[in-house]
Design brief:
The protein has about 110 residues and is mainly alpha-helical. The longest helix is centred in the last third of the chain and has 46 residues. It is elongated. It contains 4 helices and no strands. It has one domain.
Length: about 110
């Protein structure tokens, strides 16, 4: 993923609107690119920080952003596990259907 690609995905990330592949690539890029992480921090500050200031709430943006990135990583792992589970279940259905077909031939 290029920096330009990552920067385009920042608003989608902040809205939790990335698919598994884009989220995985985005998180990897953020872990390895200080410039893009700085841009993410700025956009996070503008989006979340300004809202918090308007509401009069106190906050620690650095901790919140790190939490957001960490939560996104955990959600990605869960989503990837669910995709893998769906493949396993589809395989089981195919095996069961084939078994039922073979049993019907012999009965």
């Amino acid at each position: 993923m290029t920096c330009k690609d990552a920067e385009k995905l920042i608003p989608l990330f902040l809205d939790d609107d990335l698919d598994n592949r884009d989220l995985s690539d985005f998180l990897y890029h953020m872990d390895n690119c200080a410039e893009c992480k700085e841009e993410l921090t700025i956009q996070f500050l503008v989006k979340v920080g300004m809202k918090r200031l308007e509401d009069g709430n106190t906050f620690n943006l650095k901790r919140e952003l790190e939490g957001l990135l960490s939560d996104a990583g955990r959600r990605l792992k869960v989503r990837q596990s669910l995709v893998l589970l769906s493949y396993v279940l589809e395989g089981c259905v195919v095996v069961l259907a084939a078994t039922a077909f073979v049993l019907n031939l012999f009965l």
